Amino acid sequence: MTSGELDVLFLLMTHAGQVVSRQLMYQRLRGVEQDDIDRSVDLRVSRLRHKLREASGEADVIKTVRGVGYLFTVS
Description:
By secondary structure, the chain is an alpha+beta fold. It has one domain (3-72): Arc Repressor Mutant, subunit A. It has three helices and three strands, in the order H-E-H-H-E-E. The protein has helices at residues 3-14, 22-30, 40-56, and strands at residues 19-21, 62-65, 69-72. The protein starts with a helix and ends with a strand. 12% of the residues are buried.
């Protein structure tokens, strides 16, 4: 995993069971306001999902909440 992916995972895990808005993710991870054109956070989440799925062989633990952000589900 890259450091960026680990940052995303840490942020989502510290808010497990809560929806983390894309705006908050941009502020915490990039230090800037959300830019609707910049998809870098979405790309990190996508790559992280793939790696977690590959490592565990289970369904995604990161869910998309359309129009809001992401949710790390606790099993």
